[in-house]
Task: inverse folding
């Protein structure tokens, strides 16, 4: 027959196992080095690197557009008069 204390012990053991599983999922295990926290940190770092690259490309394209515009203006001024 199942007693009240026995049920509580089973629930407590299940709760301990659930907490351990959640900890492993968040932080990783010795076999799985990257838990959820580490993967999120890696993704945030990648996003920062992509933002830096995006701003560099935007600046370079603005510079190139300026140079092409100036060169086109000079060429048109000498050709048209």
Result:
């Amino acid at each position: 027959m199942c007693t009240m204390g026995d049920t509580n012990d089973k629930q407590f053991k299940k709760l301990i196992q659930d907490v351990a599983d959640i900890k492993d999922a968040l932080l990783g295990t010795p076999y799985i080095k990257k838990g959820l926290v580490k993967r999120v940190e890696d993704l945030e770092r990648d996003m920062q690197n992509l933002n830096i690259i995006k701003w560099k490309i935007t600046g370079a394209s603005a510079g190139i557009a300026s140079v092409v515009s100036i060169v086109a203006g000079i060429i048109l001024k000498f050709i048209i008069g």
The helical segments are 4-27, 36-80. The mean pLDDT is 88.
